[in-house]
Design brief:
mainly alpha; MgtE intracellular region; 10 helices; transmembrane helix; membrane
Length: 204
């Protein structure tokens, strides 16, 4: 006999069928979450092992040559290649004799302060001549400055200088300028300056 399908039984059938896909979906999500958590724990454990030097990254890199991979290789330590150079340096040091390592005293310049530098007469004469030329330039400049001033203003300043300096400046000035300045000195000083000029007392 055929089973009668009542509305109540149809509702039960309809309600029971959608539960299966929901259960499957929930199971898949749980599995994915568990995998992600395991991966995170593994990554944290690996990072901690590297940080605490429990995992030898140098050895793993050399064994698997991880530093040669295009993108990931930059994150792994590069092997050092200077071992051969160090060995060569050590061999050279062993082969070189002891005398070559020690700097001989002849290489170091030894300038004795007790020995004065020998200066001949010609050098002294050159230095004296240069000194005179520089002094003459300075006196000529002063003579031009005083020559450009009014005579009464120039005498006020020249009165403060010693006779030697005044004579040096007057000797470099034009005769016309000297004839205007000299009378403005006191008669006593003008006489002394004139007498010295007659004797040829100047700095030239």
């Amino acid at each position: 006999m055929a089973k009668k399908v009542t509305p109540d039984s149809q509702i039960k059938i309809n309600m029971s069928t959608p539960d299966k896909p929901k259960k499957k979906l929930g199971t898949i999500v749980k599995v994915l979450i568990a995998i992600i958590i395991l991966l995170l724990i593994a990554a944290v454990g690996f990072a901690l092992g590297v940080y605490l030097n429990v995992i030898d990254m140098k050895g793993i890199t050399e064994k698997w040559k991880l530093n040669e991979y295009p993108v990931v290789g930059q994150y792994f330590p590069q092997p050092k290649t200077n071992f051969e150079t160090v060995e060569l340096d050590e061999q050279n040091q062993e082969e070189t004799p002891l005398e070559a390592k020690v700097v001989p005293p002849a290489v170091v310049p030894n300038i004795s302060p007790a020995l004065p530098a020998i200066v001949d007469d010609s050098e002294l004469q050159k230095q004296a001549k240069l000194k005179q030329q520089e002094e003459a330039k300075r006196i000529s400049k002063l003579a031009r400055l005083y020559g450009g001033m009014k005579p009464d203003e120039a005498v006020v300043i020249l009165n403060q200088l010693d006779d030697r300096s005044v004579l040096a400046i007057l000797n470099k000035m034009e005769d016309e300028q000297v004839s205007k300045i000299l009378p403005l000195f006191s008669p006593e000083r003008a006489a002394v300056l004139t007498q010295t000029m007659l004797r040829g007392g100047n700095l030239n």
